[in-house]
Amino acid sequence: MAFWQTKRLEEMTREEWESLCDGCGLCCLIRFEDEDTGEVVPTKVHCKLFDGGLCRCTDYENRIEHVPDCIQLTPWNIETLKWMPLSCAYRRLDEGRGLADWHPLVSGDPETVHTAGVSIRGLTVSEETLAEPEDALDFEASDWVEERGV
């Protein structure tokens, strides 16, 4: 059996933990929280460190230095981040659902997350292209993100 089928999230090595990321990029989207309802509203705008073509962070190891509010997933905070996509491997495993067939660890191919239509590769704009951070609201994407498994 594969490690993700036999280990709890908190038992995984750093390498195993990091390999769970399917590379969809959904967690790198800029989100706003409605102050009245607490609802988290996603946009089609990605973090300045995210490469929209590769669907990866350009400075993953140092991202917190450059983007202090970047989400740092851990086995201890994943269940509190309810805005994470339903398709997210970390969330799926935390909820006891296993990995999706298109997940690279299952398929053996890092492209399946893209060919399955789950990723945001090539579909977003960088926050660096906006005049003001609030302009991201013009790219509100609740329905679009839901289609990708949120």
Automatic annotation (TrEMBL):
InterPro entries: Puta_zinc/iron-chelating_dom, UCP006173
Domain of life: Bacteria
Family assignment from sequence similarity: Belongs to the UPF0260 family.
Protein name: UPF0260 protein ABN401_06335
